Here is the input.
Amino acid sequence: MSESPQHHGQWSSRIAFIIAASGSAIGLGNIWKFPYLLGENGGGAFVLVYIACVIGIGLPIMMAETMIGRRGQRSPVNTMAALAKEANAPAFWQIAGWLGIVAGFLILSYYSVIAGWSMAYLFKMVGGFMDKVGPEEAQQIFLDLKAAPDVQLVWHSLFMALTTAILMKGLTEGIERVTRLMIPALFLMLLALDVYAATTPGFWEGMTFLFKPDFSKITPDSVLIAMGQAFFSLGLGMGSIMIYGAYLPKDVSIGRSSVIISIADSAVALMAGIAIFPVVFSNHLPPSMGPGLIFESLPLAFSHMPLGSVFGSVFFLLVFFAAITSAIALIEPAIAHLTENFAFTRQKASLIACGACWFLGLGTLWSFYDGGEWQWHGKTFFELIDFVTADVMLPLGGILIAAFGGWVIKEKVSKEELDLGEYHRYWQIGTRFIAPVAVALILLKALGLF
Ligand code: PHE
Here is the structure.
């Protein structure tokens, strides 16, 4: 284990950390997953449950995870080991670190394939290949892409290569630089799309769908889905925010930064909804069409609207920005682990970790290609990875992190690190009781145990 915790370097400022962590949080989860989950789970009521989950569960865990990272100053496994030792707790807590590293690695393998789709669509939009397509054609374009392993391979490889290049550049020159450029650009583009959506005939219908809660639509299942989504979207339980916390200077308030990051993340999810649903309703498309929502409905809608191809291009560029700033956070824990434990340079560690991830991504790519023919216990390769990470590893990591922050780390230490003043009590209730119990419910449900 490294004896010099500081060898990774630090963020250059508080704002650099907030932007990089927002980049990690804002991703395909906000722009691809949130809208279709919302579409499938009843609109406004889902939004409310989601926001309650962000505040009640996500926020306390984010603070705990960042605090653990900053306290440990190392990669997640070594951090958990060092802090457990400091608190005289059993070494088994290291599992939380391992879960994070492995989950981030596994998620990136499929994340890159889907990010590749957004690049393919960007290319199609800019090239005008999606002008005036009909519903069948739009569907066919998506099916063709999924059935073309060579095309997907090109985009997946390009996406991984770009991710690797950013990571090889390091913290300040790589991650900070890219996120500082892309995250504000993403906000602006989304804002432009929202303004555009406001001019479409389906605007009010979209807004009603998004913001008018129909409580009869809330079911135990939709609550669990909202909770899992809050977790994924904030990027928790995966060591990402832990390693970003490890690079955080001591004088930055974790409490305040976490609030800002959570607000930014939720705002982008809602802004994506505002951009997408009016366009969907204007074209009389169903809001509940699942994972194909942004790849099938939207291009169809854009292709029939004035300036549609311009806004369609902006949309897929935005998806790409969101994806790549999350991708670097997903694999950073593994890279830090390799540099600490095997004395690799950052460049070598990035190449190895991303190379392996690229290779694993071929499995996902192939699972779309064979149309789900190969299955194990009823799940394709992609579904297996998604299930094992999002439904098992992340909740488990989340419970461990919440409990470690709330129970194992001494109160004196958490008070000093978080700087929450009188709100500290609420954080404690969150990490000690609410988050572990609520997240345990997701886990048990996902495993089909109740
Ligand atoms: N939060 C990202 C998203 O919403 C995914 C992610 C998870 C990124 C964990 C980093 C760490 O797409």
